[in-house]
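User: Good morning. I'm curious how FE2/S2 (inorganic) cluster would be positioned relative to this chain. Could you predict the structure with it bound?
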Amino acid sequence: MHSVLSWDWYTDPRVLEVEERRLFRPSWQYVGPLECVRRAGDQMVGRLVRVPVVVVRDGDGELRGFLNVCRHRGSVVVAADGNAPRLRCPYHAWTYDLDGTLRSAPQCGPEVSAELADLGLLPVRVATFGPFVFASAAADGPPPPGGRTCPSGRSIRTAPAGRRGSSTTTSARTPARRGSRR
Ligand code: FES
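Assistant: Good morning! Here's the predicted structure, ligand included:
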């Protein structure tokens, strides 16, 4: 009988895959301090395992969470914490309201304009617990432990393995860079 875990458990990507699927994806993950999303327009970025998310405070004071991936070509929409009245993708300037609705899609044809309502950012569940903000990508996952659930979202699909980043952390906070981006 082993008294310690095999070193492979820390280095084998197959173990990580199992941990992601069975432990981290269905559960709530820490995104950052509530203090970072106090004001309307505040935006705080984080990761649920390898999935980029952004938590925002909308104009009605509601806390919302989204998959931080543009519905156009998949660019990360919000690069760092900040405050802005909208979320604008740096790639082709698709712009989303703070409730995730796609507001404008510059340089796209009328067929995209007709579908704006269906191309909003994909929501994730957000909850607060004391001074902390948590998010969950599993719409049918467990409720937050003692926290208040904000508008719930749908389950999200993770990127194919070949397109994923290399992070192995469960929730990586980007160093806060406060202030207005635009
Ligand atoms: S990838 Fe975001 S606007 Fe094109």
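The mean pLDDT is 82. The domain at 8-163 is CATH 2.102.10.10 (Rieske Iron-sulfur Protein).
Let me know if you'd like a different ligand tried.
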